[in-house]
Design brief:
Elements: H1 7-19, H2 23-27, E1 30-38, E2 43-46, H3 48-61, E3 66-75, E4 78-88, E5 102-114, E6 117-125, H4 127-133
Parallel strand pairs: 1-6
Antiparallel strand pairs: 1-2, 3-4, 4-5, 5-6
Length: 145
């Protein structure tokens, strides 16, 4: 570990790699035993493979991916990053078939860092916003056709 490593720098390295669509680079900052929770996907206490799959899916589905970091706040070994995921869909993503819609999704992720590794990651976004942007029909209301 570098003596200049800080939790914010570790998270910024993760986000920079994600911005460059470098999933392996982003995952190099995540510990092999990291605890991952992705609330919109109802994943609790998952491992790093959960976030790898999510990053792979985003990069595959949005080849013109743009990540815009709004803020990075460090408190001790916890870092909260707010960022927007943008791009034009070119493949199925989560439960949305490809309709070549533009996605702009506001997200907030909470990272717990030990040394220079992310050991905990909690990802949040509004699943309804994702569905609206990608023109997914609502599943929680009866639709008359």
């Amino acid at each position: 570990m570098s003596t200049t490593a800080t939790p914010s720098k570790t998270v910024e390295a993760f986000l920079n790699a994600f911005t460059l669509k470098d999933v392996d680079g982003a995952m190099s900052t995540v510990a092999g035993d990291a605890n991952v929770t992705v609330f919109p996907l109802k994943v609790r206490d998952g491992g790093p493979q959960v976030i790898r799959q999510f990053l792979d899916d985003v990069v595959r589905a949005f080849p013109d991916l743009l990540i815009t970091v709004k803020s990075v706040i460090e408190v001790g070994n916890v870092v909260v990053a707010e960022f927007k995921i943008e791009g034009t869909q070119s493949a199925d993503f989560l439960d949305a078939i490809n309709q070549e819609k533009h996605l702009d999704l506001d997200t907030a992720w909470r990272f717990t860092v030990a040394g220079d590794q992310i050991v905990g990651l909690d990802a949040y976004w509004c699943q309804n916003q994702l569905h609206r942007r990608l023109a997914v029909k609502r599943q929680d209301h009866v639709t008359i056709v």
